[in-house]
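Exercise 7. Given the components listed, write out the predicted structure of the assembled complex. Treat all entries as one system.
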Amino acid sequence: MVSQQVDVGLIKAMYEEMLLVRKFEEKLIELSKEQGKLVGMQILAYGQEAVAVGIVKALEPDDVIVSNHRSHGHLLAKGADPKYLMAEIMGKATGVNKGKSGTLHMAVPEVNALMTTTIVGGGPPLAVGAAFAQQYQGTSNITVVFFGDGAAAEGSVHEAMNLAALWKLPVLFVCENNCWAGAQSFSEHCCLMDITQRAVGYGMPGELVDGNDVEKVFTLAKQMVSRCRNGQGPVLIEAKTYRMRGHGEHDHQHYVDKKELEAWARLDPVRCLKERMLTDGLVTEAELQVTDGQIDAKIDEAVQFASESPYPLPEEALQDLWVEDAVPQGYL
Amino acid sequence: MVSQQVDVGLIKAMYEEMLLVRKFEEKLIELSKEQGKLVGMQILAYGQEAVAVGIVKALEPDDVIVSNHRSHGHLLAKGADPKYLMAEIMGKATGVNKGKSGTLHMAVPEVNALMTTTIVGGGPPLAVGAAFAQQYQGTSNITVVFFGDGAAAEGSVHEAMNLAALWKLPVLFVCENNCWAGAQSFSEHCCLMDITQRAVGYGMPGELVDGNDVEKVFTLAKQMVSRCRNGQGPVLIEAKTYRMRGHGEHDHQHYVDKKELEAWARLDPVRCLKERMLTDGLVTEAELQVTDGQIDAKIDEAVQFASESPYPLPEEALQDLWVEDAVPQGYL
Amino acid sequence: MAVLSFGQAVNDALDVAMSKDDRVFIAGEGVGVSIHYDPNLPTHGLLEKYGRKRVKDTPVSEAAIAGLGIGASALGLRPVVEIMFFPFITLAMDMLVNHAAKLRYLSGGKSAFPLTVRLKAGVGFGAGCQHSHNLEAWLAHTPGLKVVFASTPADAKGLLLSAIFDPNPVIVIEEMLLYWMKGEVPEGDHRVPIGKARVVIPGNDCTVVTYGGAVYTVLEAVKTLSEEGISTEVIDLRSLVPLDKACLLDSVRRTGRLVVVHDATKFGGFGAEISAIVAEEAFDVLKAPIKRVAAPNIPVPASPPQEKFYKPSPEAVIAAVRATVGKG
Amino acid sequence: MAVLSFGQAVNDALDVAMSKDDRVFIAGEGVGVSIHYDPNLPTHGLLEKYGRKRVKDTPVSEAAIAGLGIGASALGLRPVVEIMFFPFITLAMDMLVNHAAKLRYLSGGKSAFPLTVRLKAGVGFGAGCQHSHNLEAWLAHTPGLKVVFASTPADAKGLLLSAIFDPNPVIVIEEMLLYWMKGEVPEGDHRVPIGKARVVIPGNDCTVVTYGGAVYTVLEAVKTLSEEGISTEVIDLRSLVPLDKACLLDSVRRTGRLVVVHDATKFGGFGAEISAIVAEEAFDVLKAPIKRVAAPNIPVPASPPQEKFYKPSPEAVIAAVRATVGKG
Ligand SMILES: Cc1ncc(C[n+]2csc(CCOP(=O)(O)OP(=O)(O)O)c2C)c(N)n1
Ligand SMILES: Cc1ncc(C[n+]2csc(CCOP(=O)(O)OP(=O)(O)O)c2C)c(N)n1
Ligand SMILES: [Mg+2]
Ligand SMILES: [Mg+2]
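Answer.
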């Protein structure tokens, strides 16, 4: 299924995006150790960068993505500015959602990362609605929804896939199978080998891909995205990857076999891509250092911007509930 | 898959049960025309008798069934007394549920028809709980849950099948595909050929059967029930049948192709079985007349019992909410 | 003004909205092809008129139906989705509460969800507690949702049109048992503002606040009460969220007495909020205890005498008002 | 009496129930193996002690988790299922409301559903509105469900044990933020009766009714109030359903004043029911308006200053009580 060559410029671009996600999260790991710097639990996509970047690279700017609690990769790949994400994660007024969301449900409508939900399984029905609008409006845009292996157990995911298949909606369902749902391993919470086996029950294609290989992810995504665009209906992609850290930074993985962690560490998508680019002579160490420096600068700028930004005013919490500037007095 | 011969006595017994269901509902059709005689909508299993009887005949008395809004066949096959069902349908104090349920959610714990719900898709999660208890208690009993083709679209059904498969619970999921979900035909509400295709997505067997042939249904059920009993986990059976009348008696099927109705009328499970028994010489016309008379008498007795029974007292509506005799004064 | 049944008025509102704005579509179980064939039902004939693109029959999937509306509204459509019977909304609560009501707030005001959800409420058709269960109190307790509940054909039309073109999620509760009740209905794009109550009958001795089908229970009671010389002011809230507190408080300031009536169960029902607002903000003028007339705290029983017992009666309203004005 | 944290007290209750009755099992997402490793969390160590048969980690399927408990309870088990965070209960509402709460009634009293559902409530950990949303008002408005909400380790243990062995469905709401708070806890099968409130501090000038985490907001306020010579009677409801009306009304009859405090949003919150009961049944003794101190009608914002703003503060309670006793 996966065949054609991916162009070198694209590979480099994808590497840079993956590195941005990686360094963004490494910074979060660092900051999460400083008391009161970040708001709420820090849930990282560390190790899953290739899925987010490979899928989103296959999209057009007008395509919509619906993300979940593990959103940093999705949002940054779609073009969200790290400054405003960092500020949101710090709960600042300059945050992409003014601090109302915090880290768990950041939405970035500017880049069509239209809805993010931390309700596991909440994304697919929303994606069906977005895709319906795209079909209804006669556009050729599609909607991608990212969800986890654990989410696949939610009834909402079933209802969404069934409806998308029935109406041939342009939805790309991307299941990031990172081998864990909280502290439950995939085999503990699901008796299937692959979530793609579900696709049969909706009469849609179900495609497996190595989620740690961004080129494979991109190549498959390209094909499936155009399928959706052409009105052939939804597709389920399952990207096999691994949650290299705890569910969140508060999770110290006491329940994880260290051997398993080491095995997957050897498959670290960022490091592996870097090595492959070097071995195949796509980049030089020098070029990589430049890239590193540029991204570090971006991250530092984001942290500085966020740190220097003010918190929102307490009473501004009363804004943004309804479209009216103010909610009727009688109500609040 | 379906092979062994079904013994003659059993065929006759199943015919009699199917006829009981048929005549019980024919009586309801008649009574539903009398203003104020029956309570609420009358939802009939007319045409689906072979599924209920064939499946339940494969069960032991201690096995549990969970039924839905189209319950008459399930309940009568499991051994519910028509008298008390009829009284319930008339909303009488002598009804199997004292008139609190009315026709839509009649439960008959005495015969292990433990839970009936008219929430489409509500049954499977309840069945999973019942089957879990059977497994937990170390019994060899199983739970059968009946649901429709329309119900298969509910998220709750997915969650239930997934959990039952993961824990290898003794649940027999019986999808009565009667070609309709309300006024939506199967192809209008589902893009699959068969609901059994869903079984793949749970790693459980999915078996199709002609739901109008009670012998086939019984034979398959026998095999699948023993599979569940032996701890091999859940099974999905899809019985292809047809809703010969409207969704309820208030539905006059203006949206149904008359040719389709006629075609299925020729497959009427009760009439076909009767003819097959006559052609194969399993019964004589005379014997059938006796059976007819006996069942008519049962139905008449039920109607008389129900008609002569009093309505419950209004204030008795305050009873039966909680196990305590009376709900604390402070509350009501 | 045409005389239409309540159901026709809802149908008219959908028709007006769909004809004037292509962004409006309807979806739900049987909104296109229905097991009922009755021009008094809200979506009758719309499939024939607007076609399958805009009148969407869905599978039996309440969460997906809600999600469909939410997601489509985020892209600028004006979805009107139907959840068949009130108790089935329990299956869509995550979508409505954690998503429709919160996603705009979570976005910091960047997104909008101009969604309308239609629901059928009603006790009295013998279907029992899984078909009859008024849960408006839940919806009213959900910040981010607007909630309307009409009692007349004209309001049913006007509130639904306002809901469809409101930029926020609005829950529109319809009293099923009123679908066949006729009344005068303004033609065209008739809007009734969300958040404005209606004084059905002015009066001086006691304020009775109600909404939905219970309005008629109260009007029935008022006949007797006025014969007894008790002047009752009847307020039909029409909108539960936002609530017309001004109308409520102004009335109670004049009468000094309040009785709240609804068909939902009493404990934790919406009537408690009405009572609490008055006990907090108009206590000084209150001359008598605030009474609530509502259903007992049980599920709706199916048996006719018990279903009747469950439903608040004119007699109960009469007794409550008499007691409140000291003529009990 | 041992000194245990709130979470250990819940854990102790589960341990006692499981050791004395084989019919008791627990199920939920991560109740066995958890991403947290903390003895102060309710299910810590139970898998090791009772094994996989009785400590069931489930897939992420809230409706199935609820259905599991309901169905298993119908066959005589004593399930204790957990719905991780309060807003996720929206996904189990059909199972809990249309089934757990109604199936016994629908059976005419033939079946019983001795089910316990544990829920984690709490505002103040920066996770935002999809993790923090107190919806006890919904549950209290659902006939057929009992609802308890403890504020101390001893009550957390005693109410949970009563819930597990209660023959009806009981919703047990736990204030997450209290899990690490220590207190004295009776050993063994300690039961706190469901339906009995607790007078935390007796007083004469004003009754303050509260429950759950808000109890501590009130106690904080009382320090200042007593310094000002205002004698406040603090009632911790502990059970919302059935409600201890006797305790509530008796107190208000003595003080003549009432303030209700909870962390849930104000509009349509449970405080409205408390207020309405008093406005209806103790109006004659009321000397001042009934005030409610609760969260504003918005989702829980994540940003620290706004989350703090959302949560009812001791200052707000102080102001409300002062105003009520006329010293505002
Ligand atoms: C409806 C709901 N149930 C439970 C949770 C708690 N929760 C958050 S993440 C998670 C595990 C999800 O696993 P998966 O879908 O595989 O996503 P991953 O965390 O592995 O990316 C759970 C159970 C939730 N947020 N929403
Ligand atoms: C949750 C829920 N949604 C909708 C309904 C209304 N309803 C009752 S029966 C039915 C069709 C169900 O079709 P199917 O599952 O095939 O069962 P059948 O009626 O054909 O036996 C619908 C939509 C309901 N009772 N419950
Ligand atoms: Mg995962
Ligand atoms: Mg069907």
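Discussion: Residues A 148-150, 178, 180-181 surround magnesium ion (ligand 3) (CB under 6 Å). The interface with chain B takes residues 29-30, 33-37, 57-64, 87-88, 91, 125-128, 130-131, 267, 296-299, 301-306, 308-310 of chain C (CB under 8 Å).
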